[in-house]
Specification:
Blueprint (H helix, E strand, L loop, with lengths): L1 E3 L5 H16 L7 E4 L1 H5 L8 E4 L5 H9 L7 E4 L6 H6 L4 E4 L7 H4 L3 E3 L7 H9 L4
Parallel strand pairs: 1-2, 1-4, 2-3, 4-5, 5-6
């Protein structure tokens, strides 16, 4: 799971964090990489399993997350609504879920991936993806 903490509002990120914490507490394995400005990273109680990757400057979080990405057949969850990860999503061998803002998620991502907005769609779709297997 790759989270661009600079790309979504804190309210949506909090819903994601809550679901992650619940799934990890139940023993579901999730590989979690979170990149963003240090103040944004510090604004939420990320699970202990999260690899927090401080990134300063425009597009730095994207570059850090791209470096953390591993191509495998496992489901990939991208918490980012912009199109910066469209090529990664297109080439990922497994299923892809994008967690973003309803109506604002890049069309380039919607072409290849399922999209969920935790505010409008609720946490159930994200929960089912995380519980279905490893989220890389």
């Amino acid at each position: 799971m790759l989270v661009d903490a600079d790309n979504l509002d804190v309210g949506r990120l909090r819903l994601v964090v809550d679901e992650l914490a619940a799934c990890l507490a139940e023993g579901y394995p999730v590989r979690l990489h979170v990149a963003g400005h240090p103040t944004r990273l510090a604004s939420l109680p990320w699970p202990g399993a999260a690899e927090l990757l401080p990134a300063h400057g425009w597009q730095r979080a994207d570059a850090v997350l791209a470096a953390a990405y591993v191509a495998d057949d496992e489901p990939l969850v991208l918490v980012s609504g912009d199109g910066d990860f469209a090529l990664l999503a297109d080439r990922h061998p497994g299923a892809v879920l994008v967690v973003g803002v309803a109506g604002a998620t890049s069309g380039r991502l919607r072409n290849r991936a399922a999209v969920v907005d935790p505010v409008h769609d609720g946490p159930e779709r994200l929960r089912s993806w995380l519980r279905a297997g490893n989220a890389s």
